[in-house]
TrEMBL record:
Its main location: membrane. SUPFAM superfamilies: CBS-domain pair, Clc chloride channel. Gene3D superfamilies: 3.10.580.20, 3.90.1280.20, Clc chloride channel (1.10.3080.10). It comes from Marmota marmota marmota. It catalyses: 2 chloride(in) + H(+)(out) = 2 chloride(out) + H(+)(in). This is Chloride channel protein. Residues 12-25 have a biased composition (Low complexity). InterPro entries: CBS_dom, CBS_dom_sf, Cl-channel_core, Cl_channel-5, ClC. Proton-coupled chloride transporter. Functions as antiport system and exchanges chloride ions against protons. Important for normal acidification of the endosome lumen. May play an important role in renal tubular function. The CLC channel family contains both chloride channels and proton-coupled anion transporters that exchange chloride or another anion for protons. The absence of conserved gating glutamate residues is typical for family members that function as channels. The chain crosses the membrane at residues 125-145, 210-235, 312-336, 386-407, 427-444, 497-517, 524-543, 571-596. GO terms for cellular component: apical part of cell; cytosol; early endosome; endosome membrane; Golgi membrane; plasma membrane; synaptic vesicle.
Amino acid sequence: MAMWQGAMDNRGFQQGSFSSFQSSSSDEDLMDIPGTAMDFSLRDDVPPLDREIEGNKSYNGGGIGSSNRIMDFLEEPIPGVGTYDDFNTIDWVREKSRDRDRHREITNKSKESTWALIHSVSDAFSGWLLMLLIGLLSGSLAGLIDISAHWMTDLKEGICTGGFWFNHEHCCWNSEHVTFEDRDKCPEWNSWSQLIINTDEGAFAYIVNYFMYVLWALLFAFLAVSLVKVFAPYACGSGIPEIKTILSGFIIRGYLGKWTLVIKTITLVLAVSSGLSLGKEGPLVHVACCCGNILCHCFNKYRKNEAKRREVLSAAAAAGVSVAFGAPIGGVLFSLEEVSYYFPLKTLWRSFFAALVAAFTLRSINPFGNSRLVLFYVEFHTPWHLFELVPFILLGIFGGLWGALFIRTNIAWCRKRKTTQLGKYPVIEVLIVTAITAILAFPNEYTRMSTSELISELFNDCGLLDSSKLCDYENRFNTSKGGELPDRPAGVGVYSAMWQLALTLILKIVITIFTFGMKIPSGLFIPSMAVGAIAGRLLGVGMEQLAYYHHDWTIFNSWCSQGADCITPGLYAMVGAAACLGGVTRMTVSLVVIMFELTGGLEYIVPLMAAAMTSKWVADALGREGIYDAHIRLNGYPFLEAKEEFAHKTLAMDVMKPRRNDPLLTVLTQDSMTVEDVETIISETTYSGFPVVVSRESQRLVGFVLRRDLIISIENARKKQDGVVSTSIIYFTEHSPPMPPYTPPTLKLRNILDLSPFTVTDLTPMEIVVDIFRKLGLRQCLVTHNGRLLGIITKKDVLKHIAQMANQDPDSILFN
């Protein structure tokens, strides 16, 4: 708060104090923009400024006998001043300036005493401590979600009589009556038909199991949507579009609050367990960011500064991906590439630390019992060959086409939901989609199992002991040299699995379109990976059989001899998963690293890169936006995309308010308006702030004051200071203006005035203005002509102009 305290007025406050206020943040200028520093030399039409009267040390500005009647009540910071209203954008420049002033004050005081030095060290260490706490809490919650979701998913099919808290796998682990071949069957695990009618055979038992599966799915989905609707509406969806918007500087109160965290954690387990085509990985990013935001309140440094808090949230997002995929490095890159708006080097280090702690915590919990952080961790040992880049690129094309198709259809459905009666009945919508999904999923073993288990099955490299239908090859025990299994002809089980997977692919493609965006926690990572993994496994088996039966073809004979292990279908599944996920999200670098960390094989980076880049190129050719950016635009969030170039030749005067024939810009004067005048302007307008000028005639700019700060300061003055009435003069100058005797006390509000608002001239190209808004995170910029105030451009105006230039509806930008 050094910036505020440095400008405090008292009887001895004179010229030296003003210069110290001006220089308090001059050593770390963010950007030098022409027009931001305005030197108002005196003119005939300009009333006297402060410096003309500074020479008179006895000047009191209040008329005869009124030296004690100047109301400067800002000797201590007022609660609420400098904060922001809901659905408003933060001022990054002001927040960073305040943090520098705070840091400078702590550094200066650390030289005065040992206690101040300890405080300085603790302040520097607090960021790392916060990262440690975020990692521990995120990892613990992720482990809890994984264990609970695994148990409740199995609950739809049966229960363990040896202990109801065991899932199917753990139940049979503890059994003494199980063989390796039938390791999924044990007397302790009973299906619902065994419990209800004492048999697991016959049509009636199948119907009972079918009915219980659908019933449990509907119950879980109903509980999830009801909890979200009643207790935490912000807990729905994946949360990543909103987090991207929040990290860009937007305020959404409650979105990262404690109720959202509790309800999202509970309902995420319920939603995943219901069998809907959704994943928990995206919502885990939201959960981790909730942890980060809540823990920020334990540290003044982050509680009181919105820009610093967003650095913490960037690191929390990295921790979320780290526990979602067991990929700490991929999590850091995901935060950098996909969600973060401002990502300094310090945040990179802290993100890495938070991701490391989160992954270590989850590994300690070991939720899957396989000493891995994810259910579908795999290791491949067969090298890939150059010719295989062709099918890998084909998978990339498929991923790009699927991504573009999904985005268009899902956005169209979500728009229909928002603009029709459908959006008024979220519970009914969730129950209908759940019922359809469960009814269609149960007959097919690949849709009945959880999506994570399906991906694990598809990624799996068949071994001698695998009993899956996907590994049902003929001559399965004929091993080649080195103990590796050669390519073999597909058996009946493989062909059966192929058509079942084809049906699964169709169901996943269609049902995911209607599932993502419902009023329950729903991630898109896992469904997208499942679609790609199915397509990749189908192509991989096809390539494997082609190489087996036609190994003498030119494309195979140079590297694939008879009896050799040439093709790995699981690798194709992995590449397909990466391609489809990239097509939907448009991730590249972070996606490849996440998939690499999943497999632990450096040699497969090139296939993953080829598929990811092809997927992005194809998807970008059909539509520039990824799914998260599309949902940001659909919801009208004020998000300035840094990746897109503004190529139009418009000027600042074409965008600023007011336009021609509009009412004049609402301004405050520096020393001639009463409290009543200011309160009237506040009540008659909805603007977030007001420019302050020397006079209405001169329109010479003095600064900019926020509406919220004005309201709080005036209310505080009325409560705490005697004599402040509606006719009291408000002034923003260094000294009170000359007043007649016996007038009400004046009210000084200079300390809530931004003396260095960003300004541009009316002829500044809009491409420069857009760059300024993007790179400095501005919420408004004032427009001048020859030093006189002409108008104002807000972030909302910039977004509306960009939408208009792109032939989109400018009124789709909903928020201030």
